[in-house]
Every structure is written in structure tokens, then in C-alpha cells.
Amino acid sequence: MGVAVSIMPCLDMRDGRVVKGVHFVDLRDAGDPVECAEAYQEGGADELAFLDITATVEKRATRLEVFRAVADAVDLPLTLGGGIKTLSDIEDALDAGAQKVSISSAAVRKPDLIEQAAREFGSERIVVAIDADASEETDSGYEVFIDGGRTGTGIDAFDFARAAEDRGAGTILPTSKPCDGTRAGYDIPLLKGIRARVSVPLIASGGAGRLEHFHAAAAEGGADILLAASVFHFGDIGVRELKEYLAEKGLNVNL
Fold first, then answer.
1. What is the pLDDT of residue 60?
2. Cα dihedral angle (68, 93, 148, 127), rounded to 10 degrees?
3. Catalytic positions, please?
4. Residue 116: beta bridge partners?
5. What pLDDT does residue 29 have?
6. Cβ–Cβ under 8 Å, residues 176 and 213
7. Residue 246 region, left (φ>0) first, then alpha (ψ -120 to 50), else beta?
8. What CATH number is given to the structural domain containing 136?
């Protein structure tokens, strides 16, 4: 059946707490990161994302002390992102326990960083995150945004995904700003457009609200990894419940 689809709860962090918003704003508290991580490991998650969502805007480094506490508490593969700007930042993240490091705004401002990081640490450790919003100014209809989704770049999201893979990114993580936190479903056209242009693993992010949304992201959007936050944080969907559903629908998952 091929490689199993992975389930990846996401810990969006602000001030040392897990938070979740809508369209990247209106954040509300969702718990202690260590407690959340331990619960997800117990609940059957395949991996976790830890994103310091205000680090770039606040012009500071990722709060590694909080991340280290999570890394010490669980055995799951961890992807760390937020405020990653340099090779030194990536090295620090890996030393703190990350298996992968996600770069977003810095990948746009300094695209050579992708290539340098892949060469230094290995492509398999480098995730390029793409915050995308609808745009009439790009051929694909999607524009790359940076600074936590606050700043438009005029860059076509599909073209940027392909260029990121060419430079050495081992995983692509697109998040649809219009869908984020809405629970109305992943942005399937965004996923399909990027899937058609890259061969590396693709993470679906932004908008999961029902079991069917996860299946659509994998079966229609071509996602290899299914990331979600609020539906997991607030108990609407359990990871094992989701895996059983996807297995019943014919997808390969690690039960």
C-alpha cells in the first residue's frame, strides 16, 4: 500500500502556551505544551509539530527552553519552526531534539538558506513552510505570505514550492490562510497544485474540521502528512478515531 499517511498534531506556541486561532489571528489558549504532547503520544500520533508562531514578528529566536521540555517528555519525531533564520538556528533546534526544522519567512528572504541547510544537515531535516493566500496577481491564484501571514510577497506559491524542492527542501508544508482555523476543510486546490510540482513529502495544514477533510487531503490533495490543531486540542476528533476512519476508507495508516 506504500508509505503510511502520518497524523501530525500541531502545537502552535505563544508565550509558552499552546494556542489556536482563525486566519492566523484571534488566538485562544489550548493548554500546556508538555501535557498536550504527552497526550498526543499516548493517543497514537505519529509525529508532532511545534511552531513558535510569533517569533518572527517579535524578531526573536524560538523559545527553545519550552521545546526542550516537550522533546524530553515524548519519543515522537518533532518538527520545530518559528523564528528560524540562520544555519545556527537550525543547528540549535536539532541539538534541542528536533528531527526536522521548518523555515518560512527566512526561506523567502534568503532562499539560499534552503540550499545551505540541506547541504549542512541533510534535506530530510529541512521543511519549507509556505503560508498562502488567494491572489489575483499570481498565475496559480495563490501568493506566498511571510511574517506569520501578515506580509504579502507577490511570489507564486506553486512556483515557490517547486523552487524550494529544487534547492533541497525535504518536505513542503503549505498552510492556507483563508482556511486556517475555520474547520471548513483543507484547501484541496492548493494541495493539488503543489503536489503536481513537487515529489517530496507534502504536509496538509489549515482547515481540518471533520474526518472527511483528512481523507480528502490525502486522497485528493496528495498529502503524505495530515497536520491539524484545534480539532485535536479541543477533543472534537481523536487521533486513533481518525486513523481507524482513514483505514476503513482504504488509506495506509499506522494503527
1. 62
2. -120
3. 12, 131
4. none
5. 57
6. no
7. alpha
8. 3.20.20.70
The model carries a pTM of 0.93
Residues of the chain predicted below pLDDT 50:
23-26
Q: Does residue 255 belong to any structural domain of this protein?
A: no
Tell whether 254 is covered by a domain.
Answer: no
Alpha helices, DSSP H, located in 44-173: 64-73, 87-95, 105-109, 112-121, 157-167
The answer to whether 128 and 102 are in contact (CB under 8 A) is: yes
| DSSP code for 45 | -
Give the per-residue pLDDT at 56: 63
Where in the sequence is the domain holding 205, given as residue range(s)? 6-248
DSSP characters over 214-251: HHHHHHTT--SEEEESHHHHTTSS-HHHHHHHHHHTT-
**CA 106 → CA 36, 55, 103, 113, distances in Å?**
28, 12, 6, 8
Helix axes 64-73, 33-43, angle to 10 degrees: 30
Tell me, yes or no, whether 124 lies in a domain. yes
Domain membership of residue 100 (yes or no) is yes
Per DSSP, the three-state class of 9 is: strand
Q: Are 83 and 55 in contact (CB under 8 A)?
A: yes
